[in-house]
Design goal:
GO molecular function (chains A, B): transaminase activity
Oligomer: homodimer
CATH topology of the largest domain in chain A: Aspartate Aminotransferase, domain 2
Structural class of chain A: alpha/beta
CATH class of the largest domain in chain A: Alpha Beta
Protein name (chains A, B): Alanine--glyoxylate aminotransferase family protein
CATH superfamily of the largest domain in chain A: Type I PLP-dependent aspartate aminotransferase-like (Major domain)
Shape of chain A: globular
CATH architecture of the largest domain in chain A: 3-Layer(aba) Sandwich
Family (chains A, B): Belongs to the class-V pyridoxal-phosphate-dependent aminotransferase family.
Cofactor (chains A, B): pyridoxal 5'-phosphate
Largest interface: A-B, 117 and 118 residues
Distance between the termini of chain A: 39 Å
Strand order of the largest sheet of chain A: 2-10-9-8-5-3-4
Radius of gyration of chain A: 22 Å
InterPro entries (chains A, B): Aminotrans_V_dom, PyrdxlP-dep_Trfase, PyrdxlP-dep_Trfase_major, PyrdxlP-dep_Trfase_small, SP_NH2Trfase/AEP_transaminase
């Protein structure tokens, strides 16, 4: 990664900085992806105040649409004002008081992140691990639950670092049988893969906007079951500056973050609209339009579209003679892992792809850094021309770097998936 | 406040929700204010990836411009991805380890918020208080420092709940003499009032976009002195999923939040660009353009403009026969407090102002709820026609509600301030 821009800040004449004028990229990394033009337009509508009746209408509609998208009837469905991991931290710090036992399922970077956030929250953290590229069976999660007896089981549905999608159907029942709540991070999986919050018994699900929702990073939708709301509200407090007499909970009980106090966020989104943060108006407009696009298409159609395009991208990769990474029967629909051929310079290939074709793909983290490429087929980019363009560009760059691939065959294989 | 919209979510048909189409408001509450149209345009530019060289250029320019705006040479000047209070929490939780003594100066709701956030961070919190509507002398803050010997002194420059602006010049030297760091929350004051981070010895200053910067809520600029960086980096750690071998600090030392770990945010904005969150691209474009507008005008010219328009608004209020709230010699340039005349229904007047003129003003919190109105003269709304329109509309609504005011005299008094 270049350091030039950062170093250059020291000598920038701030009176001469030009307006932002970004290059046109085709963003085929697993997020952020290109924001849908409809969302960009929505974002630039006029500002209203945070207590404007119109703002309440937009908030209410966002809540309703995310109930549809999460497949839930949870009253407490809303948006945390921050990037994807802000909602993760809000979920964990609001449920887990210091010392509370939590079981974290780790099979990639984002499982490790859940572990770290839970540790920082002071929880009693227990971990089960699987090698990167695999998923857990429900049976082994149940075994661990039996032994740990956690307050919360924390999972990642789609861990983009490995491209794997953890099966969750039935896990809620298991957790509830042992008195545990179930959390899942669906940042990179929601709208690209099936996710049934209510039917699968998920108590908290969080996501981000910059993946399959095709919106801008910076807002993090969350849904919370009544069961989890009850646990969170045990530590509910009202900020002294906005409370009525006698409403403030004792200091000792409070959730250990103000910004991530979900009980206060419920009250902000609820009928009293108790001031907490100042809702990010324009980001919320973006969330609204991104959700509208999904609801218009229909959530199951959107998932099917991601699956189709993910299959086409996989076919292109294999068709051109490259190898796919990980257990394909559990691959996320919206991310394809590609094993980087021996002797190929990961960074050089990606730089050339960006410079010549303006196409961005990513490598991964930890043990997979420089070992696999990750291609995202997400949001507005889950479409035929994006898949074919990315495949053709990658094939061409590899060929020019002396890697033996057959780009034509890759494109043909993808077209076959599309039935053409 | 209406609850209708929220209740209605239960029955919304999500396939029939219309695109956002907000009413045209003149937002004269103390934030959020109307986002400058230039900023709205910048926000809708094409997305780039978070590690794109162009993204690094935008980040570097944002850092440089905020050094100009904060009047600092602090290397660690950047944006936290969240609303104003996200940067407040990031500052406090990154400096204060559990048990660390902190002195919080409380003379309004936002001082109370600093106290609450520090308490939740587990700090040993000591408070000095002044009645709402007053400010502290540096001598009384020094007395408290002598007795508490805090690691950090936390202050609010402009507490919008009271419209007061706390003098800070010289306070840095006092704090440093006793080995304390100095933090100030300049959410509502920056760009509207003078703020000299380096000259006044401020170690951390945070702000928001939706006030005098004329941008959208959701991004929170912050600047951190080398002295404070050193304290924060004592607990620096690198996320396991992105660390090289041996780089992870011991668990016990970590800052008690991942999202608000400023050491990790420094590393994300620094030459290694170590992945932390996914920077909110489009919000950053907005921050860039809002900062460009201030740098183009010149920070001191922008402050003078806020002062002029604040004086005009005050003159209009007094001219029409209403009373100003609080110690006027310490009033924030950009917020005017108006004592609500006896017997006047606060909520009814504000609702009529919104419904008839589409002008929004605010009441306040705590002891001042329903007692004062707060009129913001901020960002793009710190201009003559906005001030006159707000004054004329308020005067008219009051007259129609039987309150004896002389709107014409108010407008005349404002025009005199403008030299007309």
């Amino acid at each position: 990664m270049t350091t030039a821009a950062t170093t250059a800040t020291e000598t920038i004449d701030t009176s001469k900085i030009k307006p932002v004028n970004p290059p046109h990229r085709l963003l085929m990394a697993p997020g952020p992806v290109n924001v849908d033009p409809r969302v960009l337009t929505a974002m630039s509508k006029p500002t209203v105040g945070q207590f404007d009746p119109y703002m309440f209408k937009v908030m209410g509609e966002v809540q309703a649409m995310f109930r549809t998208i999460f497949k839930t009837s949870n009253k407490q469905t809303m948006v945390v004002d921050g990037t994807s991991r802000s909602a993760i931290e809000a979920a964990l710090v609001s449920v887990l008081a210091p010392g509370d036992p939590v079981l974290v399922c780790v099979a990639g970077r984002f499982g490790m992140l859940l572990k770290e956030i839970a540790e920082r929250a002071g929880a009693d953290v227990h971990v089960i691990e699987r090698p990167w590229g695999e998923v857990f069976t429900l049976a082994e999660i149940e075994e661990a639950i039996k032994s740990v007896r956690p307050k919360l089981v924390a999972t990642v549905q789609g861990d983009t670092s490995t491209t794997m999608c953890q099966p969750l159907e039935g896990l809620g029942d298991i957790c509830h049988r042992y008195g545990a709540l179930l959390y899942t991070d669906a940042t990179a999986s929601l709208v690209g893969n099936d996710m049934q919050a209510d039917a699968w018994g998920l108590d908290i699900v969080t996501t981000g906007m910059q993946k399959c929702l095709g919106g801008p990073s910076g807002s993090a939708p969350i849904t919370v079951s009544d069961r989890a709301v009850e646990v969170i509200n045990e530590r509910r407090s009202i900020e002294a500056g906005v409370a009525n007499a006698g409403e403030i909970a004792p200091d000792a009980d409070r959730i250990h973050s103000n910004y991530f106090d979900m009980a206060q966020i419920f009250d902000y989104w609820g009928p009293r609209h108790l001031n907490h943060h100042t809702e990010a108006t324009h980001a919320l407009y973006a969330v609204h339009e991104a959700a509208r696009i999904v609801c218009e298409e229909g959530i199951d159609n959107a998932i099917a579209r991601h699956a189709l395009n993910g299959r086409a991208m996989s076919a292109a990769i294999e068709g051109m003679g490259l190898k796919l990474y990980g257990d394909q029967s559990h691959r996320m629909n919206d991310v394809v892992g590609v094993i980087i051929p021996d002797g190929v310079d990961d960074a050089a290939i990606r730089a050339q792809l960006l410079n010549d074709f303006s196409v961005e793909i990513a490598s991964s983290f930890g043990p997979l850094k420089g070992t696999i490429w990750r291609i995202g087929v997400m949001g507005v980019n889950a479409r035929k021309d994006a898949v074919l363009t990315c495949a053709a560009a990658l094939g061409n760059v590899l060929e020019r770097n002396g890697v033996k691939v057959s780009t034509d065959k890759g494109i043909e294989a993808a077209l076959e998936v599309y039935g053409e």
